[in-house]
Write a structure and sequence with these properties.
By secondary structure, the protein is mainly beta. Helix content is 6%, strand content 25%. 7% of the residues are buried.
Length: 104
């Protein structure tokens, strides 16, 4: 269940100026503090997004990264065993095999 942050509009109560509440997505936004009944407003929270840092991490997560080398030629920096490291325009044998990474 998502956790939402709220802030007291006026004087904070015993739970503090800022507090978190677990709410279902279909629940209404709180207008009053569940502790003191004071007016509150919902905050937009920062989201933590963890992105892969290396080509190895990308490959291990199932991604394919192609880096342009020249017109129509790309280097597959996340090539797996049996895949061509260089992808050339017009040569189907050099295209990465996505069936190894894409599943239902």
């Amino acid at each position: 269940m998502p956790v939402y942050e709220y802030e007291h509009s006026e004087k904070p109560c015993s739970i503090g100026k800022l507090f978190e509440v677990e709410q279902r997505l279909d629940e209404a936004v709180l207008a009053r503090c569940p502790s003191c009944g004071g007016a509150v407003r919902k905050l937009i929270s920062l989201v933590s997004v963890n992105t892969p840092k290396s080509n190895t991490e990308l490959r291990d997560l199932g991604f394919t990264k192609l880096v342009k080398k020249s017109d129509g030629n790309y280097e597959n920096v996340t090539a797996r065993k049996g895949e061509s490291r260089i992808m050339e325009r017009g040569k189907s044998g050099t295209v990465p095999d996505f069936s190894k990474t894409i599943t239902d």
